[in-house]
Amino acid sequence: MIVIxxxxxxxxxxxxxxxxxxxxxxxxxxxxxxxxxxxxLRHHAPARIVAPEAxxxxxxxxxxxxxxxxxxxxxxxxxxxxxxxxRTNVDLSCRLLEWCARxxxxxxxxxxxxxxxxxxxxxxxxxxxxxxxxxxxxxxxGWSKHAFDQIVLRRLGQGDLPGxxxxxxxxxNVYGPNEYHKGAMISVVKVKYDEARAGQxxxxxxxxVPGLADGAQARDxxxxxxxxxxxxxxxxxxxxxGLFNCGTGVARTYTDxxxxxxxxxxxxxxxxxxxxxxxxxxxxxxxxxxxMRRLRAAGYTRPFTALEDGVRRYVQxxxxxxxxxx
Length: 326
Prior knowledge:
The protein is α/β, with parallel strands linked by helices. Helix content is about 35%, strand content about 15%. The longest helix has 22 residues, at about 80-105. It starts with a strand and ends in a 7-residue tail after the last helix. The mean pLDDT is about 95.
C-alpha cells in the first residue's frame, strides 16, 4: 500500500492514476472540499481517503505501507499566513519524515523550484547539496520548502535518520490535466488556452527586468507525465536517495509557450503584453532552468517531453475533450 498526501490535487492525483494502473492499493490523504477535486479521482478511486487532521492517528495504527509520496502542501506562492504555511509545509513534513524513518518506509516528497528565488542563470539552479545554504527564496511558499529541504539534509548529516530511504523533488513549472481546481495557481498553459478559445489575444506580462524583452521571460516547463515517470522510477529504485531537480533542463520563453498553445488550439498566433501586477513585482522568477545532471547521474535516462508536444497533448487530449480529467 502506498500513501499519497495531496492525492486529490494536481500532481498527487496523476500519481494516484499511475499507481492505480499498476494495480497498487493507495490511500489518499486530502480534503476533497467543494471545488470539484473529487473529479481528479473519478476514474481511479483510492482504497481509502484520510483527512489530513486524522493522519497522525491513522499512522499510529501502523498500517502496512511501503511508501509515502508527500505532495500535500500549501502551494500558493502568494500565501501570507506564515504560521499556517509552516505547520502545513514543514511541521507535517517533519512528522512524516520521522515516521518513515522509524518504520522503514520509502519517503518521496515535493520540494519546489521556488527555493531558487531570484536565480537568473543556469549555473544557479544546481541541486548540489553544497549549494543549499546559498539559496534565497522570494516568497513564503518557497522559503517553507527550502526550510524543509535544509532540515532533511541537516538531520541526515547528523545521523538522526539512520537507514532512511528518501528522495525530494524540486518541481519546476508542471502543466497538465487535473489542475482545474487550482484557481490563481493554475498553469499558464490552461490560462492561455482559455484566452485562445474565447477568441482573445494571449496576454503575457511585460518584462520588469532591464534588458529583457517582453515575452522573453523563460521557464522550465515540464509535462505532468514526465513528473509521474520520475516518481515511479524513484519508487522502483529505492536505493536512489537525494534531493533532485525535476524539470526538463531546457528553458523556454513565454512567447514559445503562447505560440504552442495557439498552434495546438488551431488559432492564429496573437499576443498582447500587459503590465505585471504590483503584487508580483520583486517575487517573479523571470528565468528558471533545472540542472538535471544529478538525476541523470543517479540513473534516470528517459527523455523529457518537448514543450510543443506536451502542450499539444494537454490541449487536444484533455482541455478540448468532453472529459478533461486523467
